[in-house]
Specification:
Largest sheet: 4 strands, mixed
Order of helices and strands: EEHEEHHEEEEEEHHHHHEHEEEEH
Oligomer: single chain
Helix content: 25-40%
Mean pLDDT: 73
Strand order of the largest sheet: 8-7-9-10
Shape: elongated
Strand content: 15-25%
Low-confidence stretches: 1-31, 79-132
Radius of gyration: 23 Å
Number of helices: 10
Number of strands: 15
Distance between the termini: 16 Å
């Protein structure tokens, strides 16, 4: 399955202000600027550097500075280094208009390789105060990190590509898929596994031409339950739960990405339920009875489902066209 990038309500951002949520370059870091001597004030050293200069951490990591790094360091030594979070986490009844105008985004001075100074690969953060130009919505980075809410009780989810907002889906589908993915993924929190689960839901949605929420409601998915829905709701504006971060990243990828991590699957099952040596194995399991992979079904005597891939603790499956037709359902 190939998914096309959807860029509804694309917005270009200008009038950038300096970031407030980057990791400050502190004295303890002791950077070496362009291979020179260690400095006691890292921010001052970076602020006085030029674009293209390099710094080397004590751990040997070398980083080439860009303008965003230099501007940030200048802000810190200029009295704007409080380190207070510049994103607004709305209260239960929604963020105020003033709060909603504080929006951190990423990519304005984006690196294309290596680690950025704030610890995130590929992109640096910038903050802007032009939220009135942005579509109302809840904003997440592509890695699943919550960054901001714009508007009162928004109903849409957005991510960022550089300095452009990109529509993902409506909030109902996003919330339900988050709960389903985190409820079904194994506790090892493997992103690739979460990606594939989200892609299966998307595959089914596209085939049936219904919403992803409809697929979840009709599919009797064990992990999509009250506990997982409450977990997703509780963590909606937080970034501490690795499973939730993976689920959100997987959903964003399922909607706007180009790779189907499930390799064309329309079903999944926990590997422990299909392993005869596992205490969770049962001859009453649907796939055991129907036949899957290379194992004929205990009741059917044929193989009704083909394995597409296995990731984490999950096996992904599709119909065997020889017996069940080429596609879902």
């Amino acid at each position: 399955m190939k998914k096309n990038l959807r860029n509804r309500n694309s917005v270009n951002f200008q009038n950038h202000v300096l970031p407030a949520d980057c990791i400050e370059l502190t004295e303890a870091e002791l950077f070496l600027v362009n291979g020179g001597q260690q400095v006691s004030d890292s921010n001052a050293a970076v602020a006085g550097a030029q674009v293209g200069d390099t710094i080397t951490r004590e751990n040997g990591q070398t980083i080439t500075l860009n303008q965003g790094d230099i501007d940030y360091a200048k802000a810190q030594i200029g009295g704007n280094g409080s380190g207070e979070e510049n994103s607004s986490v709305p209260e239960e009844n929604g963020a105020s208009d003033k709060e909603a105008t504080k929006i951190p985004v990423y990519g304005g001075t984006g690196r294309t390789s290596g680690m950025s100074l704030n610890g995130y690969p590929e992109y640096d953060y910038e903050s802007i105060n032009t939220a009135e130009k942005m579509p109302d919505g809840i904003y997440y980075l592509e890695n699943g990190k919550y960054i901001a809410t714009v508007g009162q009780n928004p109903e849409d989810i957005y991510t960022m590509h550089g300095t452009q907002s990109v529509y993902v889906c409506n909030k109902t589908d996003f919330d339900n898929m988050t709960a389903a993915v985190v409820g079904e993924a194994s506790v090892q929190n493997i992103l690739e596994e979460a990606n594939a689960i989200a892609d299966v839901i998307m595959n089914c949605s596209k085939y049936a031409k219904v919403s992803t929420t409809s697929i979840l409601e009709e599919g009797k998915i064990y992990g999509w339950n009250e506990d997982s829905r409450n977990r997703a709701k509780k963590e909606m504006y937080k970034n501490a739960d690795k499973g939730i971060l993976n689920a959100r990243a997987a959903i964003i990828d399922a909607y706007i990405g180009t790779v189907d991590s499930s390799k064309g699957a329309y079903f999944w099952e926990g590997s422990v339920y299909l392993n005869p040596k596992s205490s969770y194995y049962s001859t009453n399991n649907w796939y055991v009875k129907s036949g899957w992979g290379t194992t004929p079904g205990t009741e059917s005597g044929i193989i009704n489902y083909l394995e597409t891939t296995r990731l984490g603790g999950t096996i992904f499956l599709k119909n065997n066209p020889e017996y069940r037709g080429a596609s879902y359902p």
